[in-house]
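Structure (tokenized):
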């Protein structure tokens, strides 16, 4: 993949192709360290950012279409006809390059929202921007608060209600419906409730633990091995208010006790950690700051840290860490901040 400005700025078709590749890759999984560096470098170019932001805008517009009455019409046979024309008119896409751009986007993204018209309700996707806290209300009255840079997908049927936490962190306030239990899946974890309030952090590539914390009610948490689903009985645990469990590599941690009145403090912009791995803190902070923090060595990823900060302090977090931990912080020319081992100053 081209990662810098090696293409002529006027070759918009190449720019759009690169934007689609990054957009689809970031939607599928967390980027690897070298991929994240390449993506950050690619986004430094204004023409690249514009193409990527156009994809994000169209993606959000498609999700909004699918959620409303227009989406219901589009899911009928033949209902997709003319949608590209409306997109072209709305976004001002040029006839030369814009048609291929919008057409490929429809195939890659739009069908996800609009294709399931044959009697099945369409899955609905919701996202939040970097540093944005957003609350949505689902069809059943359940409310979900998305933390920064978070993505979910809801899929309801007559028998069950389901949400996939694709990345980030979300707080769930679930409407009671004993006839239709509510399921949340995130990486290798599956959560089952009827009506309750709880928080789920999907973890990250560096720290792939899923953390489930209950504020109110009862929550069943199971560890699912996606490669052998159904082959063996999955380990599971039942949590009540003020309890927390972590799911990692198809294993459940011991149940920890937390202050139920402080669950999901990030909704008020407050982050608090007690004996947490540095990788978890960095992953959370990166969803609230423009320039990413990178951990330079693997041995630092599991360094245990107790700290607290506000969302508006995310940019100064690295300085706080450098003062209290055996680390050194370096700022790269591209804006990234890299944490390396070092000695604590006397």
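Design, position by position:
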């Amino acid at each position: 993949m081209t990662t810098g400005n090696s293409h002529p700025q006027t070759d918009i078709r190449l720019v759009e192709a690169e934007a689609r590749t990054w957009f689809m890759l970031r939607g599928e999984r967390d980027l690897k360290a070298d991929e994240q560096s390449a993506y950050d470098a690619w986004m430094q170019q204004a023409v690249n950012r514009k193409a990527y932001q156009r994809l994000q805008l169209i993606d959000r517009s498609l999700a909004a279409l699918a959620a409303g009455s227009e989406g219901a019409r589009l899911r009928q046979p033949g209902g997709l006809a003319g949608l590209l024309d409306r997109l072209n008119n709305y976004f001002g896409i040029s006839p030369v390059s814009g048609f291929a751009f919008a057409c490929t986007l429809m195939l890659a993204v739009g069908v996800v929202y609009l294709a399931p018209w044959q009697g099945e309700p369409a899955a609905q996707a919701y996202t939040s921007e970097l540093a944005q806290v957003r609350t949505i209300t689902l069809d059943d009255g359940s409310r979900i608060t998305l933390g920064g840079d978070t993505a979910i997908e809801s899929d309801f049927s007559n028998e069950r209600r389901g949400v996939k936490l694709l990345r980030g962190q979300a707080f769930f306030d679930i409407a009671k419906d004993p006839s239709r239990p509510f399921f949340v899946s995130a990486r290798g974890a599956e959560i089952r409730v009827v009506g309750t309030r709880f928080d789920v952090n999907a973890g990250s590539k560096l720290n792939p633990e899923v953390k489930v914390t209950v504020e109110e009610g009862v929550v069943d948490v199971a560890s699912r091995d996606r490669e052998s689903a159904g082959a063996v009985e999955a380990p599971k645990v039942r949590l009540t208010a003020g309890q927390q469990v972590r799911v990692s590599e198809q294993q459940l941690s011991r149940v920890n006790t937390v202050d139920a009145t402080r669950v999901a403090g990030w909704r008020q912009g407050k982050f608090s950690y007690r004996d947490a791995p540095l990788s978890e803190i960095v992953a959370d902070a990166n969803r609230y700051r423009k320039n990413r923090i990178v951990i330079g060595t693997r041995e630092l990823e599991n360094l245990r840290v107790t700290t607290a900060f506000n969302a508006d302090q995310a940019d100064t977090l690295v300085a706080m860490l450098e003062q209290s931990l055996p680390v050194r912080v370096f700022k790269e020319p591209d804006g990234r901040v890299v944490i390396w081992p070092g000695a604590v100053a006397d």
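Reviewer-requested clarification: The CA atoms of residues 49 and 189 lie 34 Å apart. The radius of gyration is 21 Å.
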